[in-house]
Design goal:
The chain is 18% helix and 16% strand. With 68 residues, the protein is an alpha+beta fold.
Length: 68
């Protein structure tokens, strides 16, 4: 089997973001309730650099940043 190589760089002061990873892989899911889903999504996207993997308007938002 080939060795898996992470798209995320090793931590270092000069590490460069590989960009948000949109591949599908197995991982745990964490549900976080929000009173204002639109404002919460905006905070995570614009404030912390996450990307929107998929959205069901008014119900569910799946956000991701880098991988893992």
């Amino acid at each position: 089997m080939d060795e898996y190589r992470s798209p995320v760089p090793m931590p270092a002061f000069d590490s460069v973001s590989p960009g948000n990873y949109k591949g599908i892989y197995r991982m745990p899911m964490y549900l976080t309730p929000a009173n204002d889903l639109a404002a919460s999504k905006d905070f995570w996207l614009r404030g912390l650099g996450f990307s929107d993997l998929f959205t069901i308007p008014g119900q569910v938002v799946h956000l991701r940043r880098w991988a893992f």
